[in-house]
Design a protein that fits this description.
367 residues; alpha/beta; Rossmann fold; Rna Polymerase Sigma Factor, Chain: A; 3 domains; four-stranded mixed sheet; 15 helices; 16% strand; binds nicotinamide-adenine-dinucleotide; binds magnesium ion
């Protein structure tokens, strides 16, 4: 960390996935803050020249290994907003180095949970969730004795197909799946929200972030997306985190931690009445949530395989090669096929990811 001209500490932020939905919102926040300096930018394939020039960022990289960019730009904070398993190297690097990790890329924690927890223990840095539910849980749990926690309650909007039956979903289009009722996000997470795989990934993410057994993590549908998640304590009290759905809030919280800097967002109007409806998840119509729970309980590389197969199936759906219902069928078939022994290192994980991708591709081709 470098002192700036006023003697204030200037934190260097490496932003990975800079051209995406989270990345663009993060740039807006970082540009408005004079204690944050964008030291590195990375995208998958989109050009970064204009973004780098506008932000005075010396280190930019398109594709390849995030580690080379991170070593070159020496960040104090890594904001990992890459989509998919491609984010795993950056997550493990930041945790191992003890560099603060602001984590949007949930897939890396799902795929590499055990390795990530071990790297975090060795590195000793901060791991701050950017996912809105986990940011909410982190804040409700902060400073509490883990013994007093009975359960975590993740809220799910239910996505665009809430209330539909499985039969209704056979012919839904990509455009319908991308039309999320409360959040505007990248394509992959939007489809994951429509299948509830997103909540499945978040269940596994919560398990590794907070070290809570799956049996103590509940999921409930809350269509209003006002309550971002809750914690049940052993005395019957529940703490909840509320706010309008706006990803800039958890991004800003993670980048400013522990200072909670001011942020101009729409205030939550309480006098107008809040929609605080909650309902049970329909696991029959949305099997990717129960499948994630089963993969989490199975352990080893099962969550990695779940994630890999889901990435393949979502890509096939977006490309028009598979129907909506095929996404869950593909993940279930791939999980039946793969061996899920634990990964000892990143190479094992990469092999498990590749094996599950092959199994899922075969399934997509067979239909
Ligand atoms: P997006 O598709 O809008 O952006 C993805 C970014 O990752 C892009 O900048 C892309 O260039 C980059 N990328 C893709 N492959 C890459 C690679 N191999 N190497 C480096 N960069 C690569 O996605 P998003 O909606 O911003 O989501 C990003 C992550 O944040 C996902 O893991 C998602 O689950 C998580 N997340 C997003 C939201 C949201 O509101 N968008 C909310 C919570 C969590
Ligand atoms: Mg979320």
């Amino acid at each position: 960390m470098l002192p700036d001209r006023q003697g204030m500490s200037l934190k260097r932020v490496a932003l990975l996935g800079a051209t995406g939905s989270i990345g663009r919102q993060a740039i807006e926040i970082i540009s408005a803050r004079d204690d944050l300096d964008l030291c590195g930018l990375m995208s998958g394939s989109r050009p970064l020249d204009a973004l780098g020039a506008a932000n005075g960022t010396a280190h930019t990289q398109i594709g390849g290994s995030a580690v080379s960019l991170l070593e070159a730009c020496e960040p104090d904070i890594v904001l990992n907003a890459i989509v998919g398993f491609a984010g795993v190297e950056a997550t493990l690097w930041a945790l191992e180095q003890g560099v603060t990790l602001a984590l949007a890329n949930k897939e890396s924690l799902v795929a590499a949970g055990e390795l990530a927890v071990a790297a975090h223990r060795r590195g000793g840095g901060l791991l701050l969730p950017v996912d809105s539910e986990h940011s909410a849980l982190f804040q409700c749990l902060e400073g509490r004795d883990p013994q007093t926690v009975e359960a975590l309650v993740l809220t799910a909007s239910g996505g665009p197909f809430r209330g539909r039956s499985r039969g209704d979903l056979a012919h839904v289009t990509v455009a319908e799946a991308l039309a999320h009722p409360t959040w505007s996000m990248g394509q992959k997470i939007s489809v994951d929200s429509a299948t509830l795989a997103n909540k499945g990934l978040e269940l596994i993410e919560a398990h590794w972030l907070f070290g809570i057994p799956y049996a103590q993590i509940e999921v409930v549908v809350h269509p209003g997306s006002i309550v971002h998640s809750l914690v049940r304590f052993r005395d019957g009290a529940l703490l909840a985190h509320l706010g309008i759905p706006d990803m800039r809030v958890p991004i800003s919280f993670a980048l400013g931690y522990p200072d909670r800097p001011a942020l101009a967002v729409e205030p939550l109007d309480l006098s107008g009445g809040l929609d605080l409806r909650f309902e049970a998840v329909d696991g029959e119509t949305f099997p990717l949530l129960p499948l994630a729970r089963a993969a989490g309980e199975r352990g080893g590389t099962a969550p990695c395989a779940y994630n890999a197969a889901n990435e393949v199936a979502v890509a096939a759906f977006l490309e028009g090669r598979a129907g909506f219902l095929a996404i869950a069928d593909t993940v279930a078939a791939a999980l039946d096929e793969v061996d899920c022994s634990p990964a000892r290192d990143l190479d094992d994980l990469v092999a498990a990811d590749a094996g599950a991708r092959r199994a899922a591709e075969r399934r997509v081709v067979l239909g």
